[in-house]
Design goal:
Elements: H1 14-17, H2 24-27, H3 31-52, H4 57-61, H5 63-72, E1 79-82, H6 89-97, H7 132-146, E2 152-157, H8 164-176, E3 180-186, H9 197-207, H10 209-222, H11 226-243, H12 246-251, E4 255-261, H13 265-276, E5 281-287, H14 295-299, H15 307-311, H16 327-341, E6 345-349, H17 359-364, E7 369-371, H18 376-388, E8 392-398, H19 399-402, H20 406-414, E9 421-425, H21 442-447, E10 453-455, H22 460-472, E11 477-480, E12 504-507, E13 511-517, H23 521-531, E14 534-537, E15 540-542, H24 546-555, E16 556-566, H25 571-581, E17 587-593, H26 603-609, H27 614-622
Parallel strand pairs: 1-2, 2-3, 3-5, 4-5, 6-7, 6-8, 8-9, 9-11, 10-11, 13-14, 13-16, 16-17
Antiparallel strand pairs: 10-15, 12-14
Helix pairs in contact: 3-5, 5-13, 7-8, 16-22, 18-20, 23-27
Length: 637
């Protein structure tokens, strides 16, 4: 069943209506009912996501796989571990959360990713990719240690197999040989094409018990006759190498099966039943289509990765007022402009070229654009190697993903004082993707690294100019900026830069000085108006503008620091450390994210939840002091 348009009314789903959870109801369905269930589930997802927004194509591509897994395995006692968590929407519908799908990614609603606290069927929390094989292997080894007869399945795909962590787990499992199944969901964004009747035939043969028995018996008979055994081994490997990429997995110690059509539900279920009885590490390679069942998504799987992409295709508003550019586009334009002037520029991204605003750069400078796939550690050290030999690399990376390259950032870049610029996108609170994607820690984990300078621009023009300064700096540098649109300030076309380590006062006041780091400057200025406080846009987290801090300390009795980062070890901590080192007895309070993970909601709602609004600045100002006019002034975020 294929759709060209999204359904506008809730579909009739008689088979899906019978599924209260993923237990006995799915297990008892026959082949015809399974296919009907797949059609109904796909139509329900099209309707559901069209009303809520959220990840789109990946879930449509695994409808049949999800049903087959819950049909064959005894979930949740058997463990299903999803990778690239945005594949999990069909899984959530089938595991008792159908009625709550309208709350997906909204405040207080369902997470857009698997979440252990949300359901016992969500066996492992997922936000970053390439984790499933390691986690599933841990569960398989735990079952073995405790003597529990349990099946464990990891589903990896959508490019996640390119992550180094996945290969580390594959190698280790080949040594430990746990009883586990990895399903390689090849949706044309990772492993190459292997199709046709011959491949399907061999997949059926290799999954059969007869083949396995013959293989093991032949091994025992021939391994003592070395020439015959070597010939048989080479023949088997040659046959597999012609039709599948299985030789690599076999060499790592895995039994490879596939590729199979991941949308042929009856056949997929039969193979899963056979594989579920096998011992040791197994890999089942399936081929799926991202966006399956919705023609526009099948044709453009990247553009229709999330429903927001569809919304952008609607006719634009007739309003003549243009929207401010997104920060990622400000970065992308700066990169193109810099590359036009400097042939040493190279742009690196770990599979986030579109999200990081690098599409135009990739088209204009293909020989200087490097998408390393989902391999953040490699991205950082690749940049370090380039910097050793005369190239000036710019690594565009989300804050939450840079956490994965932290060791490389310290040892391979900073320790050697190499000239690498990090453009850190999605810094701060990102909204509906939630805790796994918030960039709430980068100021804290970067500030302690020697040789590294850190910029926190407050608007899109400062972002452009501070990228210039960071790039021109000799040594490692980082510029962090948020998700979403800028403030609407005029962006200067010149690449002039700003002085490193210098902030500026944007509002003169008395008694209280508000020291802002980053994009909360508007909230700081609102509070400054209410309090008649001085507001300083500090711009640089490292090096701090200590001259400005000293000047403000001499004329003000209280400081309030403001940042979209955790309070522990952040920019405010840096100010407090400096004041203490100088023996300055200034009262200082911090408006930052406290010691907790912030749940998903809209970006504005998460900032309010985290205590980053004007009201929160006023509250810190009024702790232990009389409030202006005896009341708390409420200012909307």
């Amino acid at each position: 069943m294929n759709f060209d348009q999204l359904p506008t009314t809730a579909p009739e789903t008689p088979v899906l209506d019978r599924i209260a959870d993923a237990g006995h109801e799915i297990a008892s369905l026959n082949d015809e009912e399974l296919v009907r269930l797949a059609n109904e589930l796909r139509e329900f997802l099209l309707y559901s996501v069209s009303t809520t927004g959220g990840h789109f194509g990946a879930g449509l591509g695994v409808v049949e796989l999800t049903i087959a897994l819950h049909h064959v395995f005894n979930t949740p006692d058997d463990r299903i571990v999803w990778d690239v968590g945005h594949q999990c929407y069909p899984h959530k519908v089938l595991t008792g959360r159908r009625e709550r799908m309208s709350s997906m990614r909204h405040k207080g609603g369902l997470s857009g990713f698997p979440k252990r606290s949300e359901s016992e069927f969500d066996t492992f929390g997922v936000g970053h990719s390439s984790t499933s094989i390691s986690a599933a292997m841990g569960m398989a080894l735990a079952a073995r240690q405790q003597g529990i007869d349990r099946k464990v399945v990891a589903i990896i795909g959508d490019g996640a197999i390119t992550g180094g962590m996945a290969f580390e787990a594959l190698a280790h499992a080949g040594h430990e040989r746990p009883n586990m199944l990895v399903i390689l969901n090849d949706n044309q964004m990772s492993i190459g094409h292997n199709t046709g009747g011959l491949a399907k035939y061999f997949a059926r043969i290799w999954a059969s018990q007869n083949y396995l028995t013959l293989r093991e018996t032949s091994k025992k008979l021939l391994e003592h006759v070395k020439p015959a055994w070597e010939l048989a081994k080479r023949t088997e490997e040659h046959m597999k190498g012609m039709v599948t990429p299985g030789t690599l997995f076999e060499e790592l110690g895995w039994h490879y099966i596939g590729p199979l059509d991941g949308h042929d539900l009856p056949s997929l279920a039969k193979v899963l039943k056979r594989v579920s009885s096998l011992d040791g590490p197994q890999i089942l390679h399936i081929r799926t289509i991202k966006g399956k069942g919705f023609a526009p998504a099948e044709a453009d799987p990247i553009g229709y990765h999330a429903l927001g992409k569809i919304e952008t295709k609607k006719p634009e508003s007739s309003s003549s007022e243009p929207k401010p550019p997104k920060y990622q586009d400000v970065f992308g334009q700066w990169l193109c402009d810099t590359a036009a002037e400097d042939s040493r520029v190279a742009g690196i991204t770990p599979a986030m070229g579109e999200g990081s605003g690098m599409v135009n750069f990739a088209a204009a400078y293909p020989d200087r654009y490097f998408d390393v796939a989902i391999a953040e550690q490699h991205a950082v050290t690749l940049a370090a190697g380039m910097a050793c030999d005369g190239v000036k690399p710019v690594v565009a990376i989300y804050s939450t993903f840079l956490q994965r390259g932290y060791d490389q950032l310290i040892h391979d870049v900073a320790l050697q004082n190499l000239d690498v610029t990090f453009a850190i996108d999605r810094a701060g609170l990102v909204g509906q993707d939630g805790a796994t994607h918030h960039g709430a820690f980068d100021l804290s984990y970067l500030r302690c690294i020697p040789n590294l300078i850190i910029a926190a621009p407050s608007n899109e023009n400062d972002c452009r100019q501070m990228l210039v300064s960071a790039y021109n700096h000799t040594g490692p540098s980082a510029v962090r900026y948020p998700r979403g649109e800028g403030t609407g300030v005029r962006i200067e076309p010149q690449l002039r830069g700003v002085e490193i380590g210098k902030g500026h006062v944007v509002r003169e006041g008395s008694e209280i000085a508000i020291l802002n780091f980053g994009v909360l400057l508007t909230e700081a200025e609102k509070a400054g108006e209410v309090l008649n406080a001085t507001v300083a846009d500090m711009r640089w987290v490292k090096p701090l503008d200590t001259d400005l801090i000293m000047q403000l300390a001499q004329t003000h009795s209280r400081f309030i620091t403001v940042e979209e980062n955790v309070v522990a070890g952040g920019a405010g901590s840096g100010v407090a450390e400096y004041l203490a080192s100088q023996g300055l007895n200034i009262e200082i309070r911090h408006v930052a994210i406290d010691d907790r993970f912030i749940d998903h909601a809209s970006q504005g709602e998460t900032r309010i939840d985290a205590g980053l609004s004007c009201d929160d600045i006023l509250e810190q100002a009024n702790l232990g002091h009389a409030k202006p006019n005896g009341t708390k002034t409420a200012v909307a975020l």
